[in-house]
Amino acid sequence: MHVLIVRLSSMGDLVQTLPALTDAVRAIPGIRFDWVVDESFAQVPAWHPSVDQVMPSGFRRWHQNWRQSLRRGEPQAFIKTLRGRKYDLIVDVQCEFKSALAARLARGPRAGYDRRGVHEWGAQFAYQKRFSVPKGQHSIQRMRQLLSRALEYEYSEREVDYGIDRSRLPATTLALSKPYLVFIHSTSWSSKTWPEHYWQGLTKTATQAGFSVVFPWGDESERLRASRIANGRERTIVLPQLSIAEKASIIRGARATVGLDTGLSHIAAALDVPSVTIYGATDPLLVGATGQHQLQMASTFQCVKCHEQECFYQGEAEFKPACLVELTPDRVWQSLQSLLNGVSAC
Predict the structure, then answer these.
(1) Fewer CB within 10 Å: N-end or C-end of the chain?
(2) pLDDT for 187
(3) Looking at the predicted structure, is the pLDDT value of residue 22 above 80?
(4) C-alpha to C-alpha distance for 296 and 339, rounded to whole angstroms
(5) How far is 109 from 88, CA to CA, in rounded Å?
(6) Domain 2-166 shares a fold with domain 176-345
């Protein structure tokens, strides 16, 4: 049986899709998957040993200049690849307009959420099989339920297995002084960003405790933030530009991570690296990093407008989400120490 998974983005959502594939593999002997994904995150699906072909799409980039993209033939080549096989089932676990379009272009029966479950209303019309999977539960469980109902198998909700084949991650070539912590300081939402002076305070405490602190980054603004947080302090390492898989390898070797609600934090959880993850604008009960040795610190602020300017206060040199002010470096460090002591005792 060959199934096409459609999940374009984001990085964290892709990682959280993996347990659903593991469920299916355990229930259906010989099942194999192909996967349509945004080109920025094409490395992630290949970490699962049951994924044969990863089909990167450039929907985001093509949308910016359709004429140039068509002249280069990129959308045409993508569609040709997408339609190269007829699938036993196509499952769109994202259920937005772009993912529904990709599912519609592929060949085979299509499945997705019904009108109450889709992320963008109207996407449900692309599916021949529509399943009612209630919102208000963790995204991992929603995708596991969708795939199990579409393929008609049962699974154990208590066990979450990402199924990552660690041998598919590249070897780390950087010489990092151990033990080291990875501080995942960047996120795509400004409302999820922990204040820089909090990161600086936590970095000072960690290095004084004998840890090296490693800072990954994605773009130039994130690199500059990492440099400001490190501030030239001894035992801090701002990484060079690396692929997602290379960052995953470094995270895998960490003693622990401290991060925000972003893709690399979900990778740490999937690799069972002890982690403290900080939540302000998002709800860990719905999207929290899930795995062994995970500790989630959530703001108690009743903040419902975190994307709006009035929910920020002006700090020393930056705007900071008001809901994250209470999660101080001292509280995060104490939580990290408690987590590490608990892991050591296991």
Answers:
(1) C
(2) 85
(3) yes
(4) 11
(5) 7
(6) yes
Whether the Cβ atoms of residue 256 and residue 180 lie closer than 8 Å to each other: no
* Backbone φ/ψ region at 58: left (φ over 0), alpha (ψ -120 to 50), beta: alpha
Q: Which fold has domain 2-166?
A: Rossmann fold (3.40.50)
Q: What Å distances lie between residue 226 and 72, 237, 246, CA to CA? A: 37, 9, 18
- SS3 per-residue string spanning 2-23: EEEEECCCCHHHHHHHHHHHHH
Residue 313 confidence (pLDDT): 44
**Are residues 12 and 103 in contact, defined by beta-carbon separation less than 8 angstroms?**
no
How many separate helices (H) and strands (E) can be counted in the chain? 12, 14
Segment 34-86, tens digit of pLDDT: 999 999 999 999 999 999 999 999 998 998 899 999 999 999 999 999 999 99
pLDDT tier at 201 (50, 70, 90 boundaries)? very high
Q: Tokens for 159?
A: 């066990």
State pTM to two decimals. Answer: 0.92
- Region 245-263: mean pLDDT is 97
DSSP string, 84-132: SSB-SEEEESS-SHHHHHHHHHSBS-EEEE-TTT-SSTTGGGG-SEEE-
Task: Please give the structure tokens belonging to residue 235.
Answer: 């035992």
Cβ atoms 7, 35 nearer than 8 A: yes
Class of domain 176-345: alpha beta
Q: Where do the structural domains in the chain lie, given as residue ranges?
A: 2-166, 176-345
pLDDT confidence tier of residue 305, bands split at 50, 70 and 90: very low
- Residue 317 pLDDT more than 60? no
